[in-house]
Structures are given as C-alpha cells and as structure tokens.
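User: Can you recover a sequence for this backbone? Please restate the input before giving your answer.

Assistant: Of course. Working from this structure:
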C-alpha cells in the first residue's frame, strides 16, 4: 500500500465514523472526524488520482458542511465505501 492509498483508506474510515456518529446523534464526534477527513484530503495530490476520486475529494468540504446532518451521514457512508473500494481494488492493480 502506497502513501496515497493509505491516506485514502484513512479518509474512508474517517467518513465512516462521521456517518456512524451522526446516526447516533454524536454531533461533536462527527465534527471531529469531519475535520480529520478534510485535513487528510488536503495532504493528497488530487492530480495523481482518477477523476472520480479527485471529484470526491474536491467536494468533500461541501459534502460535510451540509445543513441536513442525515444527508451528511448518508453521503459520508457512500463516499467512504467508494474510497474503500478504490483502495482495495487498486491494491491488486497498484494503480489509482
């Protein structure tokens, strides 16, 4: 697993924690993991990613700052799964 894959996997886990926290009405915890996900996304060179991954990371701040927290939880869970799948499939191919 290269550095980019590790960071994407970390963002995936942070987004999953955001979703679970909002579903459990732990808004403070969700905000903490949202900040972590945004911080890690800024560490990745978006130009080195496939376009769909770059688009997700570019829109991450907008996604996490929506007013409807249930929508944030749903989107965070969906994007977490997409990122996780990209990391696990790219481990086999070693190509993001």
């Amino acid at each position: 697993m290269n550095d980019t894959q590790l960071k994407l996997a970390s963002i995936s886990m942070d987004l999953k924690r955001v979703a679970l926290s909002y579903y459990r009405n732990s808004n403070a915890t969700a905000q903490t993991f949202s900040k972590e996900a945004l911080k890690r996304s800024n560490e990745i060179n978006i130009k080195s990613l496939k376009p769909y991954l770059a688009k997700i990371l570019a829109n991450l701040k907008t996604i996490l700052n929506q007013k409807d927290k249930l929508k944030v939880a749903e989107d965070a869970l969906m994007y977490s799964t997409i990122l996780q799948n990209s990391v696990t499939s790219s481990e086999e191919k070693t190509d993001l």
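That completes the design. The first helix runs from residue 3 to 23.
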